């Protein structure tokens, strides 16, 4: 019996070459950071469930999640304090797809962008902070997040998870936090955001 497969495909590479070709065709996983906040309803439960829902996507894997931090709201002061956390993941999703996933999760947990006020209260806010070395400014998505270096409520929890994350054009998270300081943020040691 002859090997018809070999004769039909004479330029077919050896088996080890197939693995290399497949690997080159896959989208590489990149480290990404997501900032989560909630100041309406059961903030703690909403953030826990939102993290689980984000990680349900087949192309998102957890690297780590920060402790909870509590902060006064930015903008309108006549609203409840925020509970914040940062989720660091490895993902093969494009930055745009990661943003779409984040917005879909916000909607599941009650966010209605059409009715909310800018800087107003919300049950869930998820910001894509950075995705690997990607930079972007297309009107819908800006990477890295344009205000992250001004926000201790982002940098403090992020530094707990991945202090050496290199934010494109800005530097390491730990250095950004050191330059900004932690005024106005309070770590909630009494609460734990544990991954399933």
Summary?
This protein is α+β, with helices and mostly antiparallel strands and 196 residues long. The chain contains six helices and ten strands, in the order ααβαβββαβββαββαβ.
Describe this structure in words.
This protein is 31% helix and 23% strand. With 196 residues, it is α+β, with helices and mostly antiparallel strands. The protein has one domain: 2-Layer Sandwich (Alpha-Beta Plaits), CATH 3.30.70.560. The strands form three sheets. Strands 1, 2, 3, 4, 5 and 10 form a six-stranded antiparallel beta sheet that branches. It has a two-stranded antiparallel ribbon with strand order 6-7. Helix 5 packs antiparallel against helix 6. The longest helix has 14 residues. The radius of gyration is 21 Å and the shape is globular.
Question: In terms of topology, how is this protein built?
Answer:
Layout: H1 4-8, H2 15-25, E1 30-38, H3 43-55, E2 60-65, E3 69-71, E4 82-91, H4 95-108, E5 125-131, E6 136-137, E7 142-143, H5 152-161, E8 166-167, E9 171-172, H6 173-180, E10 185-187
Antiparallel strand pairs: 1-4, 1-5, 2-4, 3-4, 3-10, 6-7, 8-9
Helix pairs in contact: 5-6
